[in-house]
Design a protein that fits this description.
single chain; about 180 residues; 10-stranded mixed sheet
Length: about 180
């Protein structure tokens, strides 16, 4: 079984019956982890809006927006795989980036150099104070998993939690098949 490490580029999978509706069967990509805390984005919860509905001066771009987490829900963040084109991007994992020059991003989208399969937008983020996530891992509120580039850009959001749990194998593949609600038993 994989050790519960906390580092950027790591995935968190919520335990199957987490009571907090913000994180029910959530998959979170950790983007930053240091002595001041941890930041990540929920990868598998879309909201019923497009980026153009949230930002008036954004180029026409038909892409869903995701709920990144309950912190600062008046902010928009983005994760992408075009860090070589976008200055000031912060590398999370090999070929995966967070943020960057927003005006340049709009230019790249308008020029069709960034397409929907290259980027995900998030409203808000998930955050933990120093030591909080380590404690939650100790109490098994979360499981860790290795990031795979197919998870973010090629797996459907509603299948992501089950897919990653299954990929972990052993007991986790059984957990992946558990019903979403204990009331169904």
């Amino acid at each position: 079984m994989e050790k519960n490490t906390i580092k950027k580029g790591q995935l968190l999978l919520s335990e199957p019956f987490m009571a907090d509706s913000n994180f029910k069967r959530a998959v979170i990509l950790l983007c930053e982890h240091h002595s001041e805390g941890t930041v990540g984005f929920i990868l598998n919860k879309t909201i019923n809006m497009k980026i153009n509905e949230l930002l008036a001066d954004f180029p026409e771009f038909d892409v869903p927006v995701y709920y990144g987490g309950p912190v600062d829900t008046d902010t928009i963040h983005f994760i992408h795989n075009v860090g070589d084109l976008l200055e000031d991007s912060f590398e999370i994992a090999n070929g995966l980036y967070w943020g960057g020059d927003f005006e340049k991003l709009k230019f790249l989208i308008d020029s069709k150099l960034v397409e929907p399969h290259n980027i995900r937008f998030f409203v808000g983020y998930s955050g933990w104070s120093p030591g909080q996530l380590k404690e939650e891992l100790f109490y098994k509120s979360w499981f860790t998993a290795k990031y795979d580039k197919n998870y973010l850009f090629k797996t459907k959001a509603d299948a992501l939690w089950n897919q990653i749990m299954s990929n972990k194998g052993d007991t986790f593949s059984i957990i992946a098949r558990m019903p979403d609600s204990h009331n169904w038993n």
